[in-house]
Amino acid sequence: MKTVRLTTAQALVRWMIAQRTELLDGSEAPLFPGVFAIFGHGNVLGIGTALEEHREQIPVWRGHNEQGMALAAVGFAKATHRRQVGVATTSIGPGALNLVTAAGVAHANRLPLLLLPGDTFASRAPDPVLQQVEHFGDATATVNDAFRAVSRYFDRITAPEQLLATLPQVARVLTDPADCGPVTIALPQDVQAQAFDFPTALFEPVLHRVQRPRPDRRAVAEAVDLLRSARRPLLVLGGGVRYSGAGQDVIAFAERHGIPITETTAGRTLVHHEHRLHAGPLGITGSASGNELAAEADVVLAVGTRLQDFTTGSWTVFSPEVRLITVNAARFDAVKHGAHAVVADALEGVRELGHLLADWAADPAWTARAEAARHTWDAHIDKLRQPTAGLPTYAQVVGAVNEQSGPEDYVLTASGGLPGELIGGWRATSPSTMDVEYGFSCMGYEIAGAWGAAMARPRGVVTTLLGDGSYLMLNSELFSAAFAGHGFVAVVCDNDGYAVIHRLQRNQGGAGYNNMYADCRTSHAVPPRVDFAAHAASLGCLVFRADGLDSFTEQYALARQAAATGRPAVVTISTHPSSWTEAGAWWEVGVPETAHRAEVTAARSALLEGKAGQVRYTGR
């Protein structure tokens, strides 16, 4: 057996370079196309030296906040439909812990992410070292154990040869459609520098193709029997359809059988907005049209979705008598809520269902309901987008962005009120062109994720929409993107506080408190405010100030052109603090049983009334 003597870090980097992936179009590309790095004493000499040695084979992008650069890696993975994986490496201690939030985002959204945080000395000879947290009762524990709760796979390498057992598991998790999620490999800094005679076969190129598990025949046959019994079937498309590359096939399945289509958050933009079967998105941030059909459906076929509470209205959008069929690569998700589970890749599962369904089709009158209901919802959105006096609303801003966006463009958001506007109101013209991070709803993802998406999508314009709160929470990657040369448009909607949480607070009987700046404690008669345009300019961005809706339309057009220069273009606009698009679905939140405000007590009563319509499906 041929061997080569390498350090742990050198072997890891050479292994990453050898991994290849098959993209959706059948072409081949690096599985790990780059590394986001902030170097410190825990990784600069080990991983840092190894990366510099191979600087031509694997690019390194410098971040300015560990959470931000890891979120950029998540955004990159989403934009490549999970076919490529971003890597982030940090020092030990606070640098490592700053990655935990990004790991949570990747875990909740089933997205691949490779995290390589430095760790304390395996030898323990110099203990306690700088940034080491000591546990009095557990000498093996380090801060990196915090990753266990938010990693799909975790390991701590305490000897170089352990890579031989670990690296195949790393590749498995990052490329498996069922187990996909973040991988954390903690790397003690002394072990990074230790050498071992690695077999050269470890560094031979490997091509990773998407696994397409086929379903159990009996499960398919039983699902077909359920579908044939349906008078009002409904198809729900989730992110798994996108990652499988099954969009066209699943839509063709719906066309053959006349089944109306709705989408989840992760499945948004799989269907052209004007498609005759498109009923609109589903759930709280979805559409009244999609929810209308969901309430009447007797059989729901959910493909590639975990049916999160925002999709199901905390399990109130479907009829109590509905029969659920799930097609999912992950058995964990397929068996939820008493569904009839078809465990399979979305493409293979739907193909086999279609084969057995043959020429069966739903009642044409029910099929036609999708387009009719969506037209009603479209008219509602059109009305919301019309110019009005006063500050522009989120719906109007989103409408202006939507009208200027083309088939190759990509839109992104994550938290606050903007997910409801994009999920419910966006009109897609091209498949898989939206990223709404609403699995973890991570404030700050909007800018960092856009940096990653811009790296992954060199054609078209990436536009991210965010509120003032998200901007202030994590904006350092604006400079990272400007420095690296990755242009995108960031639309910063300033509504003077955490307005969507203020809405939740007030709608559930609470007093406005600590959300809008007007309700926050300050010693100033006239508190300071942020000049977002000046701040973005100081980070190397091109800036465009909009004053009103007409001005925004003009400034956004200029920003789209400016982003082509390789620098983020930031458009700032003051927006209305309390105007939202509502889909009419219910959502369970924790309203106190007792409170000093009568309004809260009334909201608690309303909560209990809403829970009466909440259904726990257990199957039949």
UniProtKB/TrEMBL annotation:
Residues annotated as domain Thiamine pyrophosphate enzyme TPP-binding: 428-572
Record key words, sorted: Thiamine pyrophosphate
Pfam families named in the record: TPP_enzyme_C, TPP_enzyme_M, TPP_enzyme_N
GO term, biological process aspect, one: L-valine biosynthetic process
Gene Ontology MF, one: magnesium ion binding
A Gene Ontology term for the protein's cellular component: acetolactate synthase complex
Family membership noted in the UniProt record: Belongs to the TPP enzyme family.
Protein name: 3D-(3,5/4)-trihydroxycyclohexane-1,2-dione hydrolase
Origin organism lineage: Bacteria, Bacillati, Actinomycetota, Actinomycetes, Pseudonocardiales
